[in-house]
Amino acid sequence: MLALTGRTRPRARLTGVASYLPERVLTNAELETMVDTTDKWIRERTGISERHIAADDQATSDLALGAAQALLRSTRTSAADLDLLIIATTTPDHIFPPTATLVADQLGATSAAALDINAVCSGFVYGLAHATGMVESGLARKVMVIGAETLSRIVDWNDRSTCVLFADGAGAVLIEADDEGDPGSGVIGFELGADGSGKDLLCIPAGGSRRPARSEGVEPADLCIQMAGREVFRFATGIMVESATRLLQEAGLTTDDVDLLVPHQANSRIIQHAAEKLEIPPEKVVTNIDHVGNTSSASIPVALAEAVEQGNVAPGDLLLMVGFGAGLTWGAGLVRWEPRT
Ligand code: ACO
Prior knowledge:
By secondary structure, this protein is of the alpha+beta class. The protein has helices at about 30, 40-45, 60-75, 100-105, 125-135, 160-165, 230-250, 270-280, 290, 300-310; strands spanning about 1-5, 10-20, 25, 50, 85-90, 115, 140-150, 170-180, 185-195, 200-205, 225, 260-265, 320-325, 330-335. Strand 13 (about 320-325) and strand 14 (about 330-335) form a beta hairpin.
């Protein structure tokens, strides 16, 4: 577990958010024609009605670039001023080079260091924590953190228990150094964790160095997401509450101080359960899973961008972000929304 609640200067501030979703919408009705499922089952068990899927010629870097460009426009930031670009993704364009270097190049972020991180659906919160550490240690002043995924490329479209859940998209935030920030402003802190003993509950069995794609006996399904849904559900409902509670306690805050819960959008029942346990009322919970699905590391910034666009977030609002995912990993972050004026 990593706790980062220090009061070092400069403070890191979250000053902008933007997202990009590919045009193609895949509805539950279409999924009914692909696997043995129903719109009713998907909506009742997951809360998803439709999701966006990347075009054949779009890779993760293309979605990330869309979100990054929108973020630079909305924050009136020059790409050349970025010191660091972090992309959280489980679906990089290539094993290497990093997707972040491709996006930095397309963006014109010529002064930025660039790297990918993979903590699966917790990746965005991990990325945010790393950006905060870089800014508050003085190693960077402007960091873009992107969560971007083309999960449609690693989904087994014959497996009804997973193909109805996952989707594509990208969300980006800007983290900036603030030399004047008051205590209680900016990024407040994080609670991150990992438990690799749950590695088999959610994984892609082959295609890595343990079992390369060219190994004997590797089937196409072995290169796709495989999940023990019920076990992951149980883990998710517990860890979201535990991680958020630990973080709030560490920060000396309670859920009454939270203006908006921005949870990982994996299943509306998981979100509802976590919100109820944390005693956060539904009007303070961002839920867009019905039209976005589970976009893994993109899910939290995409949900936040939508909440901002819809005017549901005011400057100074305290955001509680909570994610969990394969690994198993989890992460919660407390951050004030302080957009550029
Ligand atoms: N359509 C119709 N029936 C289905 C479907 C489907 N798409 N999928 C599964 N079923 C069936 C199952 O086969 C099972 O049938 P059976 O009782 O005859 O065996 C029945 O529905 C119930 O299956 P469960 O797995 O018990 O269904 P559950 O209510 O648990 O919902 C779900 C399944 C939605 C996958 C749920 O377990 C879940 O959301 N788990 C967490 C998933 C998650 O959060 N994953 C992402 C983590 S983030 C990351 O790192 C990528």
